[in-house]
Amino acid sequence: MGLEAPGVEMSLPRVAILDDYQGLALTLADWSGLDGRAEIVVFRDNLGPLDAAVEALAGFDMVCLMRERQAVSRALIERLPRLKCIVTTGVWNAAIDLEAASQRGIDVFGTSNGRGQRATAELTWGLILALARKIPAQDVGMRAGAWAGAPGRMLEGAVLGLVGFGTVAAMVAGYAHAFGMKVCATSRSRMARELPSHVKLMEPDRLFEAADVLSLHVRLTAETRGLIGPRQLRRMKRDALLVNTARGPLIDQAALIAALQSGEIGGAALDVFDQEPLPPGDPLREVGSNLILSPHMGYVTRETMADFHRQTRDVVAAWLNAGDPSSLAPRLA
């Protein structure tokens, strides 16, 4: 509910901006309006394990999150007695224990998704093209002095399989249609008549068997964790390509590595991982050129990040004024 009314003697409230990997928070948004009203501290790197996060955040009244880069668990909340408000980018954040926050009386607000969904769809399509035409491998070969690398494949006439059909998947389906692909999807919440005319609804097992490119677009839940495992990978074509810009644990990582190394599938591109940032020694970093890795850049564009940081600033300013930021951003707790 904001801080004490003006006139009450107190130190400046402290606001932590977390996981600003590219150093964009204070350049894409003008925070000067909070000069003299709050101390703004930016953390460029992920805070790491629980004890390290507690030590870093113990003195803060507000914490601003960039999507789900930092988990805010019950254990963390219970060890931050000064924390009064959390602002997350996006309309939901599965990394926040909302029940624990509510029980503590901590306000939680989320910004809009901005242009993040369109940005994610664009990156998904970029990864599909990079896999199909082996663009990263061609670049590496050229820099090593080679000229003609292994040929890629065309997308026209190929089958794109979409696991889930929400906003991002619908955008990707539009790109695929423009490229002349056949688009199929599996969805638990949509009927065939609700899909665009260029998208065919299909049962999951049939989708895995039919897809030349399989792209994941479902939320991570207890039910979807490990959705793509050894059984599903065995059903896929030997030259099929798998793309994940949704959530890392949707795929059994060990099973994927085995499938890529044995040639059970043709290739994969991952923008999301079980642990983020991906540890330097993670086995995924050792897989060959049939795996493309991207550091969770789906929503990360200049435009989207500007939207996120400006909306976060506006919510922080409203809360510091002891106002109700819910007119600017939805209240999550």
UniProtKB/TrEMBL annotation:
Pfam families: 2-Hacid_dh, 2-Hacid_dh_C. This is Hydroxyacid dehydrogenase. Residues 126-298 form the D-isomer specific 2-hydroxyacid dehydrogenase NAD-binding domain. It comes from the Bacteria. It comes from Hoeflea olei. CDD domains: PGDH_like_1. Transmembrane segments: none annotated. Keywords: NAD, Oxidoreductase. Belongs to the D-isomer specific 2-hydroxyacid dehydrogenase family.
